[in-house]
Design goal:
six-stranded mixed beta sheet, 2 domains, alpha+beta, Trna Endonuclease, Chain: A, domain 1, 8 helices, about 40% helix, three-stranded antiparallel beta sheet, elongated, Arc Repressor Mutant, subunit A
Length: about 220
């Protein structure tokens, strides 16, 4: 069974290969390396934990060169664990090292330093589009007991309300009168089971649609 102390020799060798002088258990730090512009502190644990991150963050008051070190994760969840903890370490300005049990290989997954995220234009565009599409602020309460009210659901509710009032109608008429440009596609896709096609281009409301209108009453601004 791997012990925390087993991480120390490979980590010591790793930082010595960088030309640093390494000593263990200096003060409260597991490993300290000197010889560069700033001291290097490494906190070692056998697994990721909130306590490990708290400990490492506290070391940032001593030096900006702080690393976490854990055994390299194994198993089906390892890839996700590495990805998520690497991202978190970068956001906190911490370095991240893993030590492979079978041969002591040290992998540098993140270096300490300020976090400078890259803005995703695609994700930003999705947020802005959904914000613009959403009518009112329905997720503050009420219908959220069924789930979140999205712009898509609001558009489907407009189509359903139109059919409930006027009966079966062509998609083009629903789009024109409700102001929902994608009305025909929404009714054809029938994501919520609210619509049925009577004939080509003509749609009607199902019993599920009637219940949906009742369940989501208040999801549309008055």
């Amino acid at each position: 069974m791997q012990r925390e102390a087993d991480l120390y020799p490979p980590l010591k060798a790793h930082f010595e290969s960088r030309g640093l002088i390494v000593k263990g258990e200096i003060g409260a730090a597991d490993l300290v390396a000197m010889g560069g512009p700033d001291p290097v502190i490494v906190e070692m644990k056998l697994k990721f934990s909130l306590a490990l991150y708290h400990q490492a963050i506290a070391r940032l008051s001593v030096t900006p060169q702080v690393y976490l070190a854990v055994p390299h994760p194994e198993g089906p969840a390892a890839r996700r664990m590495i990805r998520e903890n690497t991202a978190l370490s970068r956001r906190l300005g911490l370095g991240l090292l893993t030590v492979r049990a079978r041969d002591g290989f040290v992998a540098v997954l993140a270096e300490p330093g300020p976090y400078a995220p890259r803005v995703s234009k695609v994700r930003r565009a999705r947020i802005e589009a959904e914000f613009a599409r959403r009518q009112g602020d329905p997720n503050a309460g009420g219908a959220t007991r069924h789930g979140l009210v999205t712009g898509y659901r609001q558009d489907a509710l407009r189509c359903a309300a139109y059919l409930a009032e006027y009966g079966a109608a062509r998609g083009a008429a629903v789009a024109r009168d409700t102001g929902v440009p994608g009305a025909t596609r929404i009714m054809a896709d029938n994501h919520y089971g609210w619509f049925r096609r009577r004939e080509k281009g003509v749609y009607d409301l199902t019993p599920e649609g009637q219940r949906g209108l009742a369940d989501w009453d208040g999801a549309l601004p008055g």
